[in-house]
Amino acid sequence: MRRVPDILSPRGRDALRALRQQRVLIAFDFDGTIAPLARHPASVRVSSGVRRQLQTLAAAVPVAIVSGRSLADLRRYFPRFPGLLVGNHGAEGLSGHRPLAAARRACRLWRRHLLRLLHVRRASAGVWLEDKSFSLTVHSRSPAVLRTLRRQLAHAAPPDLPPMHFLSGKASINILFPAVPDKGEAVLLLLRRTRAEGGLFVGDDETDEAVFSLKKKTLITVRVGHARQTQAAFFLHSQKEIGCLLATLIDLRRLPSKRS
User: Fold this and answer.
1) If pLDDT is split at 50, 70 and 90, which confidence band does 260 have?
2) How large is the C-alpha radius of gyration of the chain?
3) 66: closest CA among 205, 179, 235?
4) Which of 17, 113, 162, 240 is the S-S candidate for 106 at Cβ 3.0 to 4.6 Å?
C-alpha cells in the first residue's frame, strides 16, 4: 500500500508553503471535511470557529465548497459565503450549458424504481432515499444492505431506465447521471474560472477520488482519514483537524511571498 504523508507534517507544510508563490484555489468537500458526519444529513452542523476561518481565508484567496449536497442545501449552511458553492457533485453552481433537464428526468424515473426496491428494506435496515433533483443518494448504516443494493442497481435495473453511474460513499450509494460533471471536472473548471495556477482540495469520500486522481502537479490533494486505497497526495488524520489545517492556510497567506 502506498504510504501517504500527513499534510500537517513538515513535508506537508512545505507543500502548502509552496502555494504562496502561486495564484491558487482552495476547495473543500462538505460532509466529513468542513463538517463532521452525522447519522442524518439534516443533523450536520458547521462549528462557528470553522465558519469564521472559512470567511477569513475566502477574503484572501478564492475558496470553494464542492459537495454532493444540493446547491440549495449548501446555501442554507452558508447564506453569505464569500466563496464559491458547487452542489450535486458538480452539476449545480457552474456556469455553461449542462444537461440538467435530462439529469432531472433521469432521477425522476430512477426515483420511482428505487422507492419500489427499497420499500421492503426501509424499516428493518434504516434505508432511505435522498432526492437532490439532479442526483439521488441511498443512505443506510448497514454495509451488507448497501452491497446488496449496489449489485441490484448495477445488474437488475429495468432496461427502460436511463443509464446511471453508481458511486459508493460513506454509508451511502450515489446515483449520478453520466452527462453531468463529477467533482474532478468541477474542480478543473473552478481552477480555470479563478485563473488559478495551482490549488488545494480536501475531501473524505469515494466521490472525492475524482479530484484526487486528477493528473495535475500543481493541485495538492488531501484525504481526511486513512483509506487503504486513495489517489490523494496527503492525508489529514480526522475531520477534527480541519480547523488546524485552515489556521495553517490562513497563516501562510499572511506571510509575505517572493512574488509580493
Assistant:
1) very low
2) 19
3) 205
4) 162
Query: DSSP string of the chain?
Result: -----BTTSHHHHHHHHHGGGS-EEEEE-TBTTTB---SSGGG----HHHHHHHHHHHTTS-EEEE-SS-HHHHHHH-TT-SSEEEBGGGTBS--S---HHHHHHHHHHHHHHHHHHHTTTHHHH--EEEE-SSEEEEE-S-HHHHHHHHHHHHHS--TTSPP-EEEEETTEEEEE-TTS--HHHHHHHHHHHTT-SEEEEEE-SGGGHHHHT---TTEEEEEES--SS---SEEES-GGGHHHHHHHHHHHHHS--TT-
Lowest mean pLDDT of 135-144, 209-218, 251-260, name the range.
251-260
**127 vs 108: CA distance, rounded Å:** 19
Cell of 37: 458526519
Of 185, 36, 15, 168, the C-alpha closest to 96 is 185
**Is the pLDDT assigned to residue 15 strictly greater than 50?**
yes
